[in-house]
Amino acid sequence: MDYQLVNNVATEKDWHALQRTLAANGSQTLLTLAASPQLGRWTTTATFKVMNIIDRLTHREYRADQYRFFNDAPIPTWAKTIVNRDGSISIVDHGTEIAREFLFPNTRRAVQDLRYHNPDQTLDFIEEFAADGSLFSNLFYAENELQEMVFFNHQEQPIVRYYLYQGTINYVTIEDPQNQQVLAAYPDLVAFYRDQLAQFITTADTIIINYLGLELSVLAETKSHNILELAEDPVDDQGQIRGNLAAILRNEITSIQEVRVTRQVERQLRRQRLPLNKVTVIASAEKKR
């Protein structure tokens, strides 16, 4: 199978750009790494398959034409949902605001998340909902700093947990939904993604990436045919060929077998006297940016 691998689809603009990319390179499946409650807003109308690492573990399937009405969000028994004059939405318990409710962009009624705060207004936790209204995740804070992220299945059972320290994910667990027994644990996000890819990527698969960051790191242990089609400038701020790109061309990074570039970029690489045996020149019109 042919995959287009990206870290995240953050905005509708990103989604439309990826639609054009997959149409142009013929990839069958968009494979995303980062958990995204918004993903289901677009995937139900996609003409290609979309797979997300977290959704695969939670067995999440997005239901088209469903959403959770803002006044139907689960809140404490005696709390009330109040729409303020400025259009913001408060969750009020016995006269005191305990949370703010936020809606998905470009909607007037579909709840995106509930952000509960402490008396000093620092964040306590956030309850996120998927585009179809089902519970997606809980984000827990201490002193306004994110500490833990929990991702649920459709039965609202926790499946995956991220633990953070000073803004960095430094532990990941996968749990049995029935008893919360830890089935697998990882020291960081890259190790987690690498292991998950190994569960289904085979030697018969092709993966295309566009960036030299996380997408490149998670391919380290794959056996697929991996292609870099660079979407960013091959030259860094110091005017040098990016280190990871040079390492790929020198085969110091062996997880990429082919690098697709325009003729202009190929000339830049040639001037730097870098090996070109992995390079395939493509026409500028084939670039998806």
Helical content (DSSP H or I, runs of 4+): 10-25%
Radius of gyration: 22 Å
Count of separate structural domains = 2
Residue share in β-strands? 25-35%
Assigned CATH superfamily of the largest domain: Glycogen Phosphorylase B
CATH topology name of the largest domain, in short, is Rossmann fold
Straight-line distance between termini: 23 Å
Question: Which regions are unreliable across 5 or more consecutive residues at pLDDT < 50?
Answer: 285-289
Can you tag this structure with a few keywords?
2 domains; 7-stranded parallel beta sheet; 19% helix; Rossmann fold; 289 residues; elongated; 17 strands; alpha/beta
How would you characterize the overall build of this protein?
This is Accessory Sec system glycosyltransferase GtfB. The protein has about 290 residues and is an alpha/beta fold. It folds into two domains: about 1-60 and about 190-285, Rossmann fold; about 70-155. About 20% of the residues lie in helices and about 35% in strands. It is built from seven helices and 17 strands. A ten-stranded antiparallel β-sheet has the order 4-5-6-7-8-9-10-11-12-13. Strands 3-2-1-14-15-16-17 form a seven-stranded parallel β-sheet. The two termini are about 25 Å apart. The relative contact order is 0.11. Mean pLDDT is about 90; it is low at about 285-289.
